[in-house]
Specification:
alpha/beta, Glucose Oxidase, domain 1, seven-stranded mixed barrel, two-stranded antiparallel ribbon, 12 strands, about 25% strand
């Protein structure tokens, strides 16, 4: 017997897309009183809500969503709470995980920073803080550790696998880039050189390790424990990402 814990955010018209992408459009094409049936039309980015990025999203010749086998999507894993170590624009390192949990080669790794509370459907919604000020890995060494550990996939309660200042957000919001530089006391290029731009979307993907962004739901119920974990995206031929459901399976 298994107890299922949903680690996915609800999805709807208020779900925030990745910064700069259009919001979803949801239309009723038929309604029950007039058509005797209900049907809807959805137009949306794939990088919205709880979703998986396929290697195709960040690497030349990377695999699409349909190429990810089921036994890579489901397996043993660990959910690690690193919220005490990070804050706005904080830096994530591998030591935050190894000191807290039994992290094993071949695991599925999900990490909790507490930033899902700032998500649109979170306890204290703050979309700018969630999308533009969340923590992220400081160095490509973290991405190389993901490969070394042969993780099936990784997931996190963040808008991106990369630090927001190592993404296009720093170009779209130069005011935040200046504030970040003033906060850390170093120029941006010294902290996140352009040659390492989006390294979490390039290095693990080149090793065919996908990731899930915007993990949420009842994540707080399963912190610092090992369990079975599954992600269930579309079997999308040619797809570079997919909205998905993430579930923790706990032995009853």
């Amino acid at each position: 017997m298994w107890k299922l814990v949903d680690l996915s955010h609800p999805w709807g018209m208020d779900t925030p897309p990745w910064v700069g992408y259009p919001s979803p459009k949801i239309t009723y094409t038929q309604r029950l009183p007039f058509n005797k049936i209900v049907s809807q039309w959805i137009e949306t980015s794939l990088h919205i809500g709880t979703h998986m990025d396929a290697p195709l999203h960040g690497t030349p010749g990377g695999g699409d969503m349909a190429s990810i086998p089921l036994d890579q999507l489901v397996g043993e894993g660990v959910i690690v709470d690193i919220s005490q170590d990070v804050a706005d624009w904080g830096f994530i390192t591998k030591e935050m995980f190894t000191k807290r949990a039994d992290v094993r080669k071949g695991d599925i790794l999900i990490y909790h920073t507490g930033f899902h509370d700032y998500y649109t459907y979170g306890k204290t919604p703050d979309e700018e803080r969630y999308m533009c000020r969340h923590p992220g890995p400081l160095s490509p060494d973290f991405a190389r550790w993901v490969i070394e550990m042969q993780f099936k996939w990784i997931g996190f309660d963040l808008g991106s696998g990369d630090h927001p200042m190592n993404t296009t957000i720093r170009d779209m919001r130069p005011d935040l880039a200046r504030e970040f530089e003033a906060t850390v006391g170093k120029p941006m290029e010294e902290i996140f050189p352009r040659k390492d731009f989006f390294f979490m979307h390039r290095i693990p993907f080149a090793a065919r390790i996908p990731h899930v962004e915007n993990v949420g739901g009842d994540l707080d119920q399963v912190l610092n424990r090992r369990c079975r974990i599954g992600a269930f995206p579309w079997k999308f031929k040619g797809g570079e990402a997919s909205i998905c459901r993430v579930v923790a399976f706990l032995e009853a």
